[in-house]
TrEMBL record:
Pfam families: Na_Pi_cotrans, PhoU
Annotated organism of origin: Pseudomonas congelans
Annotated keywords: Cell membrane, Membrane, Transmembrane, Transmembrane helix
Name of the protein described by the UniProt record: Phosphate:Na+ symporter
InterPro entries: Na/Pi_transpt, NaPi_cotrn-rel/YqeW-like, PhoU-like_sf, PhoU_dom
Amino acid sequence: MLTLLDLLSAVALLIWGTHIVRTGILRVYGTQLRRVLSQNMSKRPLAFIAGILVTALVQSSNATAMLVTSFVGQGLMTLTPALVIMLGADVGTALMSRVLTFDLSWLSPLLIFLGVVFFLSRKQTRAGQLGRVGIGLGLIVLALQLIVEAAAPITQAAGVKVLFASLTGDLLLDALVGAMFALISYSSLAAVLLTATLAGTEVIGLPVAIGLVIGANIGSGLLAFLSTSMQNVAGRQVALGSLLYKLLGLLLIFPVLDPLVAWIDTLGFRPQELVIGFHLLYNTVRCLIMLPTVAPMARLCSYLLPQQNEVGGLAKPRHLDLTALSTPSLALANAVRETLRMGDLIESMLASMLAVLRGTQTAVTQEVRRLNDDVEALYSAIKLYLAQMPREDLGEHDNRRWAEIIELTINLELASGLIERMLRKIQQQKTAHRRSFSEVGLEELADLQIQLQSNLRLGLSVFLSGDHESARQLLREKRQFRAEERRLAHAHVSRLRNKVVQSIETSSLHLELIADMKRLNSLFCSSAYVVLETADTGALSSEAEGDRSL
């Protein structure tokens, strides 16, 4: 019983170490990693090498799978390069199995000691977070050693020996047992190391060991697929493709297994070295053979797990991945992407209002109401998503970004309600009162509306990039808009003095719309102040501060 408890605790330690490494890397290099994966992974060799390096770093193909499926689920990369990365991850985990056969008993305590020192002394700095990664890596190395040591007494039990004796080299049966090893130990790497240990103590023969290794690879694919069961369809497609590749590897090696085992047995190395060598050779050859087939595999996965189209109802968030909440930089990026969706909906509402002003559209009440409901739904989803992030764990930059997102989503939600009220006023004026704007007044409102749309796009760009020059340009546009709004109000009053009938009939609505557009413009330009207040150049000028209060 104690031996089984040791094994389970070692597996739990491995899972925890993998979690610490994954979240630690994303906290330190999350932004750079997202940029690399979203921009430079279109070339297959780069994606393949990236899979090898990331897996070598986190020492777990399952951790790599969780990273990649998360990125695909958030739209940061497409399915095809993600499958290439997963093939590289299989080679990376095989390389790590070879490295871990060396005597690394000194590495785990060193990593844990240095990691704790850096993490406790400089917790909120990059060095402190790298120390956290070091703790996780040390725990992974320690857990893998403990799994092999805890499993050794179990393999010597009489019942277990009978079980292994029943494995006579039947590839399918051996692969099934190997897959179970990987699932139980939560790591194909641990399963392969355990298999190598069993082969080294002659508990199992070489043909059985090779079957177990192949099964361990399949088990890691099953593990990744089960781990993504709560993710969206795009993320599950990656895990499905990786699993199908591992099953195809079983079919490809089946006809040549007997001569391959006979040849390996003649090499004269120790059984443990032969098992590890086969693992590396098998994964490398399999992945290189299947590398040209990633595009058809992506289409197959998309066919087997199709995206579900939204039918009616409110807009649903696409990027708010709950599994990313433990990684602030990644979760904030998700919230930013959803906030930009809110901006797109606001722009659609502005376009509808412009069409109504010009008379090219009339019956848009239902459409605008639906867009307003969608904006409110996304606002609520983003607000609740950010509320689940523990702000005390955020660094200074992430804390500021958190506040920026909240502020902009509030402004966009207020803008949405204001636009809907403006449209109701316009339609009521045209339908109930049968009145229309003068030709000159209509053009003035349309021009102001176009400028408003332009400022919305610039404001979203400033929010996304944080560029100081763009923020200053946005403030210049705001001042220009304010000057134009005053000019148009004065021009309208002049038309009243000239007794233009249409201007007299629509006077109240005309001035109300100008005032509403001024409020909308202030909401759209608010992101400029956040950027400039955090600039190294100092505080905002007194003129800009005065402008903000309007």
